[in-house]
Recover the amino acids of this structure.
């Protein structure tokens, strides 16, 4: 398991395959699930141009590691990789990567979802958006993911 | 005893500082009492999160020498 919090931009797909090559034994896992969170150009009805992501150094790593460990204890997971950025970012930039390797897909899906959901709830990061109107605003809460508590697809409110 | 206090995001804006060192004379002081010392004119905002030594806790948490206390708004990472 590895958790990295960094300022530098990253390519989540390259990072996933590089980590797999170096750390995950061949032939043991039958499923890799990845979640990549990227920066939108809209939020809460505002047109967003850039975003600054502040964090609490060391506390972020510690809490992401705790969440990953909980997922490893709960499901049959071979390995997990989490990368999270901080600092200035622009539209389309990957913000977070969660990759989970497991023998079977159900465990990989569940563990990946658990890690991203609890990371969002517990890791001390704060988004400050700059809007097209030239305003800066702290994002006060993460938007509810309409599918987060449901098994069904397409339960979007609007 | 000496406590390091840190503020993040809109709590830093509100306090006008990122960090300070606070000297407290007696032991057994809680986070709430520390807050009253660093912010005598404003009560602790209800939605503020508190961490002591990087673990989440509440305002009743008793402090000891060398603790690092952080006040910050709900987190919005991911």
């Amino acid at each position: 398991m590895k958790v990295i919090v960094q300022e530098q931009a990253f390519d989540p797909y390259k990072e996933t395959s590089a980590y797999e090559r170096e750390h995950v034994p061949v032939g043991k896992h039958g499923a890799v699930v990845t979640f990549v969170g990227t920066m939108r150009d809209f939020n809460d009805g505002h047109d967003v141009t850039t975003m600054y992501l502040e964090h609490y150094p060391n506390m972020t790593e510690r809490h992401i590691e705790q969440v990953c460990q909980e997922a490893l204890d709960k499901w049959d997971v071979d390995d997990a990789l989490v990368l999270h950025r901080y600092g200035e970012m622009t539209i389309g930039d990957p913000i977070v990567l969660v990759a989970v390797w497991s023998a079977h897909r159900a465990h990989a899906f569940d563990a990946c979802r658990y890690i991203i959901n609890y990371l969002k709830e517990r890791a001390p990061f704060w988004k400050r958006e700059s809007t097209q109107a030239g305003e800066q605003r702290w994002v006060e809460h993460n938007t509810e993911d309409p599918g987060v508590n449901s098994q069904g697809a397409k339960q979007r409110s609007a | 005893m000496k406590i390091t206090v840190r503020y993040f995001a809109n709590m830093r804006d509100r306090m006008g500082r990122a960090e300070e060192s606070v000297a407290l004379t007696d032991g057994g002081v809680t986070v709430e009492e520390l807050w009253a010392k660093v912010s005598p004119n404003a009560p602790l905002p209800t939605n503020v999160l508190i961490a002591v030594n990087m673990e989440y806790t509440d305002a009743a948490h008793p402090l000891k020498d060398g603790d690092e206390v952080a006040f910050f708004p709900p987190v919005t990472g991911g």
Observations:
- The domain at 2-138 of chain A is CATH 3.90.1170.40 (Aldehyde Oxidoreductase; domain 3).
- The longest helix of chain A spans residues 105-122.
